[in-house]
Design goal:
about 170 residues; mainly alpha; 7 helices
Length: about 170
């Protein structure tokens, strides 16, 4: 497995498509204030056998905050506001614009994920335990309150679907 951001991106898309995973990710994001690309990165690093040291975890959080605060969250806010019918705005045009905003949001998340993937190489730690430890480490740095039960449910869902095993 290469160290490219595309590899992380591909893993994340496949993992996110797993049954129940999108709703767990959105719960972590919307209810617990977590950053989904950062959460996925922590797990992916663990799956690769990489235990995030304090410096790397902090760098991952800093990168994620920069993308979230500057690009992703503002675009998400605009996209969500465009869900509803807007007075004199043509619905077809509104939906077309909303789709373009969503594409930009996804592009920004992909750039974030490529920057995160560049932080690590390969490792030799036990994947599932390391993924869980990494997840808690970045969650502690990301938010004041660590949602341990939802984070464990997220890891359990990924584990049940085989995403916490390293396949070089």
């Amino acid at each position: 497995m290469s160290d490219s951001g595309t590899t992380f991106w591909d893993w994340a898309l496949t993992a996110y498509a797993g049954e129940g995973v999108p709703s767990l990710c959105l719960e972590l994001q919307d209810t617990h204030g977590q950053n989904v690309p950062l959460v996925l990165f922590a797990v992916w690093a663990g799956v690769r056998g990489v235990a995030l040291d304090e410096e790397t975890a902090e760098a991952a959080v800093d990168i994620s905050r920069a993308y979230a605060d500057t690009v992703v969250v503002p675009l998400r806010t605009i996209r969500q506001r465009m869900r509803v019918v807007v007075g004199d705005m043509d619905d077809a045009h509104r939906e077309a614009l909303r789709s373009r905003v969503k594409a930009l949001e996804i592009e920004a998340e992909r750039a974030q994920m490529e920057a995160l993937a560049a932080l690590i190489g390969g490792g030799s730690a036990e994947p599932e335990k390391t993924a869980r430890d990494n997840l808690l480490a970045v969650a502690r740095l990301w938010a004041r309150v660590v949602p341990r039960n939802p984070l464990n449910a997220f890891c359990d869902a990924l584990s049940e679907r085989g995403f916490l095993r390293y396949n070089p």
